[in-house]
Amino acid sequence: MASLTAFEQLQQLSRKTKVGQKTEKVEDIGKTFLLVSINQTKVYIDACDISEVIDRAKVSSVGHTVPWFKGLVKVKGEVYSLVDVAPFLKVSPSDKKQCYTVALSSDYDNVAIAVDGLFGLHSVEEIKSKREKGYLDIYKTEQGEMQVLAFQRLVSSDKFFAVSVFSN
């Protein structure tokens, strides 16, 4: 059997099942993260939250929304809200174009985030400690500290639901 490329491994690890179907666990290999760049700040995303990575997704604009809500994208026949999470993470604005879309999904939310760089998969065997910092979790591992996007905390926050310019 041929070895998998990093992208094929990511796709295999991050395939999400629909509600009611059996979910495959990946505990036997530790935790796997995708390292991305958001406005030139490196952030890890748990591979279990990822349903797809898309290069230059076609975005449909939605009027009267806040600047961080970029619009809607279609991923595998489903509609995802595309957001720029930089304001939530309090990272500095960047002139670099966000050219990748990382589709994240949970049982009830389909959210895609715009990122400007992909740096591959990183496996972690042991997480020694974890602390929360806004919408990031700071993991202390054998390789050092990692800033991990707290996807569930982000999408369940009140601030995240205020996408209309009229609700502010």
What's the SSE blueprint?
Elements: H1 6-14, E1 31-38, E2 41-46, E3 50-55, E4 69-75, E5 78-83, H2 86-89, E6 100-105, E7 110-115, E8 117-124, E9 127-133, E10 136-141, E11 144-149, H3 151-155, H4 158-161
Parallel strand pairs: 5-7
Antiparallel strand pairs: 1-2, 1-8, 3-6, 4-5, 6-7, 9-10, 10-11
Describe the structure.
By secondary structure, the protein is mainly beta. The chain has a single domain (31-162), classed as CheA-289, Domain 4 (OB fold (Dihydrolipoamide Acetyltransferase, E2P)), CATH 2.40.50.180. The chain is built from four helices and eleven strands; from the N terminus they run αβββββαββββββαα. The chain has helices at 6-14, 86-89, 151-155, 158-161, and strands at residues 31-38, 41-46, 50-55, 69-75, 78-83, 100-105, 110-115, 117-124, 127-133, 136-141, 144-149. The strands form three sheets. A five-stranded mixed β-sheet has the order 3-6-7-5-4, with no helix packed on it. A three-stranded antiparallel β-sheet has the order 2-1-8, with helices on one face. A three-stranded antiparallel β-sheet has the order 9-10-11, with no helix packed on it. The termini are far apart. Mean pLDDT is 80; it is low at 16-29.
Features:
single chain, 168 residues, OB fold (Dihydrolipoamide Acetyltransferase, E2P), 5-stranded mixed sheet, 3-stranded antiparallel sheet, globular
In short:
The chain has 168 residues and is mostly beta strands. It has helices spanning 6-14, 86-89, 151-155, 158-161; strands at residues 31-38, 41-46, 50-55, 69-75, 78-83, 100-105, 110-115, 117-124, 127-133, 136-141, 144-149. It has a five-stranded mixed sheet, with no helix packed on it. It has a three-stranded antiparallel sheet with strand order 2-1-8, with helices on one face. Strands 9-10-11 form a three-stranded antiparallel sheet, with no helix packed on it.
